[in-house]
Amino acid sequence: MRVLSSKFAIVLVFISNLLSSAVYAQDNQIIIGQAIDLSGPNGSIGRDYVAGITTYFDSLNTSGGINGRKVKYLARDDQGIPAQSVKAVAELLEKDRAEYMLGGIGAPVTDAVVSSPKFVQSGQTLFAPLIGSVKSYGNRVLFWRPSPEQEMQYIFSYFDKLGIKSVGIAIQENSVNQDMFQYVSNEVKKRKMQMSGIVHINNSPADIERESAALSKANPNIVIVVADTLSTGLFLKEFRKYAPRTFVAGMSLTNLDTLAEVAGAKSLEWTVFSQVIPNPQGKKSIVQIEHSNMMKKFRDEDLSSLTFEGFVVAKTLAKAIQLSKSGKDGLQSIANQKSTMDLGGILLTPHEGSYRMSSYVDIALFRKGGGLMF
C-alpha cells in the first residue's frame, strides 16, 4: 500500500506540475485583441489586414515569441458596425484580458471604440486603425499609416510633375468627408490649378450621371475622389461612360474587389491609388521578402498591400512590446521616440505630436486586366 501510495503521490505531483505549467504558459501569453470588419462592407480589407497580422505573429511564436512570451492574437468580426465593435472590444478587454488593442476600419468605428467606457477605463492606446478621413484623436490613438493629407499631397505632387493643371472632384456628401473635400479644394487653389467641376455622389444614379456628363465636358486632366469604396464605384460607373481615359485618383483604403464589382473592371483602367506600403510583390527589402515567405508558409493566400500592412503593423507592435519596460507602455514609448525604427527596409520616424509611425506614400496604377502596378 505504501508503494502504491508513493507512486500515486508521484503521479499527482506530475499532473500538478503539468497543470501549473499550462496555467503559467497561459498567464505568460501576451494577449492582443482587435475588433475589425471581416464580413461587412470592408470585409475583404479586414480579412487581408488580419491575415498579415496573424502571419507575423505565427512566425514570431515559432521563434519563441517576445521576450519568451508567446503572442495570442484574437480578432473579432464587428461587421463594420460601431456598436458591434464597442461590444467586441469590451469583451476582449474584460473576458480575454487583452493587453494591447489594434484598431478597426473607418472613423465611425474608431470614434465609438475610443469613447466607449471599457476602452477609456483600460487606459490603452488604440493602435493602427485604418482610417481614410481627416481625424485626430491625440494620444488615444497611434496610427501606423501616414495621414490622409499626406496621401493627398502625394497624389497632387505626382500629377503636378506631369503638368496636369485641370482638376475635378467627386465628393460623397457626408460629415466624414467634408474636411478632406475642403483640403482638396484648398490645395487646388494653392497650386494654382483650375477647378473643372464637382460631382456630388448621392443616392440618385440619375444625378450622378448628369453631373458626371457635365464634368467630362469640362475635360479635367484628373478627377480626385473623396468617397468610400461604394460611392467611388457608383461615380466611376457613370463617369466612364463619358470619359474612359481621364485619370481618376483614389486613396489607399479603396476596396478594389468591391470597386470592380460595382463599376466593372474596365472602369478601373486609368485609375490610380495612393499606397502607404511598398509593393507587396517586390523583393527590394528584407521585410518584403519576409512577408512573402511567411505568407507562403502560414497562409497560402495572395499577397496584397493590406496583408503587407498588417504584417508590418504586427512587427511594429512586437518591437514596441519588446522595448517596453513596464509591459504596457510600449506604444507610447515608440510614439514618443525620436530615433528611426528599421523594420527591414521600411523606416519609421515618428514626428513629435503626430501620433503616426510612418510617412511612406507611393502611387499605383490599376493595370488593364486587373491588379495594381507600382
UniProtKB/TrEMBL annotation:
| Leucine-binding protein domain sequence ranges | 30-332
Q: Which UniProt keywords apply?
A: Signal
* Domain of life of the native organism: Bacteria
Extract the signal peptide range. Answer: 1-25
**InterPro entries in the record, alphabetically?**
Leu-bd (IPR028081), Peripla_BP_I (IPR028082)
Gene3D superfamilies xrefs: 3.40.50.2300
Q: Which Pfam families match?
A: Peripla_BP_6 (PF13458)
Q: Give yes or no: UniProt keyword Signal.
A: yes
The UniProt entry's coiled-coil ranges are none
- Which family would the database say this protein is a member of? Belongs to the leucine-binding protein family.
Q: What name appears for this protein in its UniProt entry? A: ABC transporter substrate-binding protein
